[in-house]
Design goal:
The chain has helices at 2-38, 43-53, 66-81, 196-205, 251-257, 263-271, 338-360, 377-380, 382-389, 434-446, 470-474, 504-523; strands spanning 95-114, 117-118, 125-127, 135-144, 166-170, 175-176, 179-180, 210-214, 233-234, 246-249, 284-308, 313-323, 328-330, 333-335, 367-374, 398-404, 422-426, 450-452, 480-484. With 539 residues, it is an alpha/beta fold. A hairpin with a 2-residue loop joins strand 13 (328-330) and strand 14 (333-335). It starts with a helix and ends in a 16-residue tail after the last helix.
Length: 539
């Protein structure tokens, strides 16, 4: 009947209103809860932590040093004090240890023979303690490979088969019209820095058994070991085992053993940055042997991990990361790393405390929050690489990594009116189509920062997307957002990156924005979609 239809419609409207009201009320309640626990993220709290992290006592926090271990101990103590749980199977510790190799200065044997001639160490050649590994090498063919570069724009290895052979190469990289050929700008590539290390990785990948390097700028190598030989640590998977052993020889020795190549002309061309047509140089056939031995030891670095366990979705995870290492002490000067990345480290501590307080008040996150400060970032993303290869929590259940690396200062190159109210966001259009809407919604509702996507340009000359710890999550398919202030000039990687340069109010606002974003991702119904393939997983 008509009355029954009207009653049904009335009831349906009432139920719909109740449902919508419930959603709106729930949203406002959640927003109110988030604001309540974001409020204690204050400039005083951030300053308290950063004053310690970027102090003289921490000695610049270089990975593998006492300073790094002091910083790890401080972060661990803070995680424990604010009530975060330690990972299971860590025996009460919050530190995920990972091994590093460290070379001593003890070179026990280095013997090089070409043909019937044994080369004299320190005059005819020098060798690298850090970059060579103990092994015995025998060969009989030498191939000239120009600068030892293989890229789309310029390839010294084109049409060359170097497998099982010794490659001979020049230091440096080619230029064109005064600019570096590979970049098209005044910015050099990895073949200049880290230089030899990059070339030796490539040589090994091409199958070369060893390399002979000619430095066009230095006719006679100085000293018995190369200038980069020190007690630096290195990550085993990225270290010497994947590189070709090499020596740097004098110009005189190069002319003696490779007379048909006219080495003096090669040196002149390399000094001028000219390109090489490596294929036109005939191989040299003669016996080669390289016997090399050194001492090394294993030391540990660590990632520091604290957990706020979730409720109904505790088997899904939201990561908040930042690296706590920096550059240590160089030439007697402490590199404080207040912004890089003391600011990110202390942001992680402040957000961890906020989520811990929410949990204690019965308003904890639905998903488990994992707060991780990593070491080794400045060395090559070592700590995050180790975690991504040895995850504590399933990566397919990790909804996101929110990585914070330098959020305390202002980009000195940013010439815009909103300079005091911005943050660069990297990864907004990668891996997950959910990221941008969630981050922008959290920001618009709470902090109203300008979110600048400048560094998500695929043609970004700085390639920022590949340069911090989120990248090791992204390679595994985990959606990421990376928050960054863009401070690449000014005091970047200088001892003057100190706490007095921090813009405290902007720093706090950025951290609160990241907190609101984390809150939303931790409490939404679904994990973030993984619907945008990562197009480039090379670095």
């Amino acid at each position: 009947t008509l009355s029954m239809v009207l009653n049904y419609c009335t009831i349906k409207k009432a139920l719909l209103f109740a449902f919508v009201f419930g959603l709106i009320h729930g949203s406002f309640a959640q927003s109110g809860d988030a604001a309540k626990f974001a409020a204690p993220i204050t400039t005083d709290l951030l300053k308290k932590h950063l004053t310690i992290i970027a102090s003289d006592e921490m000695e610049g926090r270089e990975t593998g040093t006492a300073g790094q271990r002091k910083a790890a101990a401080y972060i661990e103590a803070q995680f424990k004090a604010i009530g975060l749980k330690a990972p299971v199977n860590f025996n009460g510790s919050y530190q995920q240890l990972y091994p590093l190799n460290q070379d001593s200065m003890v070179l026990t044997e280095s013997r090089v023979k070409i043909g019937d001639t044994e080369l004299e160490l320190g005059t005819a050649y020098i060798t690298s303690v850090v970059n060579n590994t103990s092994k015995s090498i025998e060969g009989k063919e030498f191939i000239f490979v120009g600068y030892g570069i293989s890229e789309e724009k310029y390839d010294d290895y084109k049409n060359l088969d170097v497998a099982g052979k010794v490659v001979v190469l020049m230091l440096g990289e080619p230029k064109l019209n005064g600019k570096f050929l590979l970049s098209g700008t005044s910015k050099y590539s990895k073949y200049t820095y880290p230089g030899i290390a990059a070339k030796m990785l490539l040589a090994a990948k091409k199958g070369a058994i060893a390399a002979i390097v000619i430095n066009p700028a230095v006719a006679v190598p100085n000293g018995k070991i190369a200038s980069n030989n020190n007690s630096s640590v290195y990550y085993p998977a990225n270290g010497e085992e994947n590189k070709a052993n090499y020596i740097v020889i004098s110009h005189e020795a190069a002319n003696k053993f490779f007379p048909n190549w006219q080495v003096d002309s090669l040196v002149k061309n390399a000094k001028a940055g000219e390109t090489f047509d490596a294929g036109k140089y005939e191989k040299v056939t003669t016996a080669f042997s390289f016997q090399y031995k050194k001492e090394k030891q294993i030391i540990n670095a660590s990632n520091v991990i604290g957990i706020v366990e979730g409720s109904d979705k505790k088997d899904e995870y939201v990561f908040v990361t930042g690296h706590y290492d920096h550059l240590g002490i160089r030439n007697g000067k402490i590199y404080y790393g207040a912004d890089d990345d003391g600011s990110g480290t202390c942001a992680v501590l402040a957000m961890a405390e906020a989520f811990a307080k929410a949990k204690a008040a019965g308003k904890g996150p639905r998903r488990t929050m994992v707060f991780m400060t990593v070491s080794g970032e400045e060395k090559g993303l070592w700590g995050s690489q180790y975690y991504s290869e040895n995850p504590i929590f399933p990566l397919d259940k990790t909804s996101v990594d929110l990585n914070i690396d330098m959020v305390g200062r202002i980009d000195t190159e940013r010439q815009k009116d909103d300079t005091l109210n911005y943050v660069y966001v990297i990864g907004h259009n990668k891996l997950s189509s959910d990221l941008q809407g969630i981050n922008e919604g959290a920001n618009n509702q709470n902090t109203q920062l300008v979110l600048d996507y400048k560094f998500d340009d695929p043609n970004d000359p700085e390639q920022i997307f590949y340069r911090s710890d989120h990248y090791n999550f992204a390679k595994k398919g985990v959606p990421i957002l990376f928050f960054y202030d863009g401070m690449l000039q000014a005091d970047y990687h200088k001892p003057t990156d100190t706490i007095d340069k921090i813009n405290w109010e902007l720093y706090k606002k950025r951290v609160q924005m990241i907190f609101y974003t984390a809150w939303e991702i931790a409490n939404r119904n679904d994990m973030l979609k993984r619907d945008i393939p990562l197009s480039d997983t090379g670095r």
